Amino acid sequence: MINIIGQKVLVLDFGSQTTQLIARRVREARVYCEIYPYNISLEKVRAIGPNGIILSGGPASVYDKQAPAVSPELFELGIPILGICYGMQLTTHLLKGKVERSYHREYGPARLSIDDPDDIFYGLARDPVTYQVWMSHGDRIEALPKDFICIAHSETCPVAAMRHRRSPFYGVQFHPEVIHTEIGKDVLANFLFRVCGCQPTWDMYSFLQGATTEIKVKVGSGRLICALSGGVDSTVTALLINRAVGHQLTSIFVNNGLLRKNEAETVLAFLKQLDLKVHYVDAGNRFLSKLGGIEDPEKKRKIIGEEFIRVFEEEARRIGDVHFLAQGTLYPDVIESVSFKGPSSTIKSHHNVGGLPDIMQLELIEPLRELFKDEVRKVAVKLGMPEDLVFRHPFPGPGLAIRILGEVTAERLNVLREADAIVLQIMKSSGWYRKVWQAFAVLLPIRTVGVMGDERTYDNVVAIRVVDSLDAMTADWTRLPSDLLAKISNRIINEVRGVNRVCYDISSKPPATIEWE
Prior knowledge:
- The protein is of the alpha/beta class and 517 residues long.
- The chain has helices at 19-28, 42-48, 86-94, 184-195, 204-219, 232-245, 263-272, 284-291, 297-319, 331-337, 373-382, 387-390, 410-429, 482-495, and strands at residues 9-13, 33-37, 52-55, 81-84, 98-114, 130-143, 148-154, 161-164, 169-172, 223-227, 249-255, 278-282, 322-326, 363-365, 438-452, 455-468, 476-477, 499-504.
- Strand 10, helix 6 and strand 11 (249-255) form a beta-alpha-beta unit.
- The longest helix is centred in the middle third of the chain and has 23 residues, at 297-319.
C-alpha cells in the first residue's frame, strides 16, 4: 500500500495463538499494523521504518534448542519495542538478563499490582489497587537485564512488567490483547501513543484514499479483470477498483458449478444494482470434470485455484490487452496461507492465495489483503453497497467442494445444496443469520442406517456448522436454541432425499478450523 497513513507498527510472530489478536487490538486503536514472521531481516525492518515493534508470545522457552529469536541488533535501531510473554522473556535473554523455569506456572487469570504508574501504565492506579490480567507462561524473569526496572508484579510473578531506564523498551508477562486482561487496551494505547508517538489516523477513509491512489499508480492506463464471486470481499474489490480506474475494469463472475442453490441468479441480481461491467462465465462442467476422483482437500483447492486462473486468462484474451487480475484476498487469508517457518504453520491453501499456479500470465492486484473482514464491511458501507450484500456470510473460494468431504460429484452437490439452503433459510427467518459469523451445511463421506416410512435406509450424514467470530482467525461454535436445531434437522431429513442423519459441530477454532476442509 502507498503509505499515506504515515505510520506503522510491526507485530513479530513467535507462534502465539493470539498474535492476530494483537494486530486487531492495535488497529482498533486506529493505528495501522502488520504481522511479520519473527525472522524478518533487519534490513527489511529498516526499510519499513516502523513507529514501534511488538514481540508476540509463543509456546517456546528461550532455552529450547531451536527457540525462535530476533537479532539483538533489533534493540539498536532506536525503535520502541514491547515484548509480550515470550517476547518479554526473549528481550531479557537477548539483553543478558536471566530467565528460568517458574516454580509457580501461571495459566489463566492473575491479579496485577502496578509499581510504576507511568509510560505503559499511565493513568492506572498503583498498588494496593490490583487488576485482572491473563497469564500463560512457565518461565519467569529471574534477573532483569542491565538498566531495566520492574514496573509491575503479581502474587507469583515478581517481574510481571519491566522497562528500560532510558530506551523505549518494555515487556509484560501477561497478554494485553485478550479481553480477560481488563487494562489491556490501556497498556497497548499507552505504548502506541505515549511511547511510539503514533496518532489514531488509521480508518477506512484513509484506507480508501490510499488504496485508490495505489491502484491508479499501479494500473496506469492498463486494463484489468476482477474475479467477482458476489461475496462482500470480491465485490468491494471491484467497486474500489472501479472507483479508481472506471472503464478499464471488467469484472468476471465464474459459475464453477460449486455454488450454493440459486447462487448464480442471486449474485447477478445483486451486481446489477452496483453499476459494474460484469461478464458471466458458466464453467460448471469444466470444474466438475477436473475434480473427478479427487478426495484430498488440498488437491481440490489447488485444482480449483488453477482452473479459475485459466478461465480468467482465457477471458482476458477475449477482452484483449489485459495485464492485471484483481481478487478479494483478505489479511486472514494471507496469514493462514503462508508458513512463518517455525512457530506458525500453513493452515490451508486458499485458491486466491496458496492455490495460485506458479506460472500465471496476469499480474495480481489485491487491494484488501491488509484488511480484516470487519474492516472490509466498513469499506463496503462507505462505498454504498446494499446491506444484504455487506452482511452476507463468508463463502470459501473453492465453494461447496470443500464442504463435501471426499469426491465432488453432481449428485453429492445437489444433496448439499438442498441441505444448505434449508440451513440458511431457517437462520434468516428466525433472525439468527445476522447474529452469527457463518452458518452452513457439510456433507460427510459416510452413510448410516435409518428408518423412514417403516423401511430401513442407508443414507448420507449432514453436519451443521454455525460459528461466532470477529475475523475468522478464531471462532467458537454458536449455542443455537435446541428447538431451532430440531427444526433444521427435521426439515433436512424430511425434504432432502438421501439424508437420514444430521449432526451439529461443537468444535471451536482452534483446534478445529471453521471449514471442514
